[in-house]
Amino acid sequence: MYSYLLKVLVCLCLLTVSVELRSQMQKLKISDNNRFLVREDGEPFVWMGDTNWFFAKLSPSIIDSILKKRSEQGFTIMFVSCREKLYNGDGPGTPDNPNEQWWKYLDEYVDKSEKSNLYVGITLGWWGLMKKYSAADLFEYGKWVGNRYKDRNNIVWLTMGETGSHNRDNAIPDDKLIALVNGIREGDTGDKLLTVHADYQRGTSLSNDGDICDFNNWQTSQWCCPEQLPRNDERSWTVWEAIEFDYNKRYEGLPKPTLDSEAWYENNKDFCEGGSFNIRRRAYFTILAGGFGHTYGAGGIWDGLSVSEECSETALNALDYEGAVHMGYLSSFLHGLGRDLLKLYPNQGMIVSGNSDSYDSHIQASATVDQSFALIYSASDSPYELDVANLKGSQLSGIWYNPRTSSYQHDSGLVITDKSNPYAIDPPGNSGAGNDWLLILGDTEVVKKYAAKN
């Protein structure tokens, strides 16, 4: 009898620990100004994502290493897809006949992510799946998956891969996508954030898909072609213009948060030219243009490689790509802003001269709504001029942040006492594109406090 009671007590303790672990992370929600994501307590959520789409191909020990390292580096959300076969078994099955072994592996991934303080963005498959099943089947599939994870707080629904504003042959009927979304929301009780992972070189805002999303997203392209982003005149959009389009769009009079949720991949075996500078500038451009975060991708991790291919390392070796380290720096910088992050808005009007539409020399600016400070990112060290008249304070100071080293130059000598005329800014160095800098400019006392906090 004693042995039986002991076993019961042990089981209850384990159950309590499991429930506590699952309740540690807060659910995400939209900020009051409809521009950012926040946790339930109102603290800003810094979205710094990585794609681990083919996670199922990797063994538990490798997944453990990936999640631990990404958390340490400053990443906050991992993307996975319900599509690839298990490293030791079959795939997820079909909507009407799921493979329980596969889904238990995803359960473990979600739980492990929570222990590493990571959220998980989930697509229930890829766009081709939408063509195979009816709207009724997709509703039931979404409901089943949503119900399975309704008690996990660390999930964001990405719905279905490359389905948002789908622009290929045999476009996906609206009724199918709506049915899948409704199924997820009903099964999950509708209390987690949901978007539809955008088709490549597309954004959910380009179609009615934005209406059913809690936030918009772009896949500006994991390949190589930002110049092919859609636009209705002679020139295609840049990545910052795509985000600006979303920023200015309204849904029943209100904006929706947006981000570049899948950008240039680093050391992707199919397109090896994406280096760390390409990674950095795309992130800074889109975040300061109004995006609430960014998603990085690494060859070897997204595709679950156990053997290196072309420029792609194995999943474990890919963890230390230079671009990933730099995204960690950016995450740390944004975390350091605290609730001031929620005050930022894009402010290109303060750039008077020196800007360019070239990715190698573009300048992107953002300021707080109370005008206490501004952030200006320049992809090169070319000089430019700023209109600083609206920034608060009788004396303004500037500090340079180096996005390549996560270091500060406090002795910049940049002090502005006359705000009536445009002020010439000359970033450190003289090596051109890739010598990128972020200028923190504002009231002297505010900038001092901010720099000390970081």
Automatic annotation (TrEMBL):
Q: Which domain of life is it from?
A: Bacteria
- Locate the coiled-coil region(s) and give their ranges: none
Q: Which residues form the Putative collagen-binding domain?
A: 346-441
Question: What Gene3D superfamilies does the database record attribute to this sequence?
Answer: Glycosidases
Where does the record place the Apiosidase-like catalytic domain? 31-336
Q: Which InterPro entries match?
A: Apiosidase-like_cat_dom, Collagen-bd_put, GH
Q: Enumerate the PANTHER family for this protein.
A: DUF4038 DOMAIN-CONTAINING PROTEIN, LMO1036 PROTEIN
What is this protein's record name?
DUF4038 domain-containing protein
Species whose genome carries this gene? Poritiphilus flavus
Taxonomic lineage from the root? Bacteria, Pseudomonadati, Bacteroidota, Flavobacteriia, Flavobacteriales
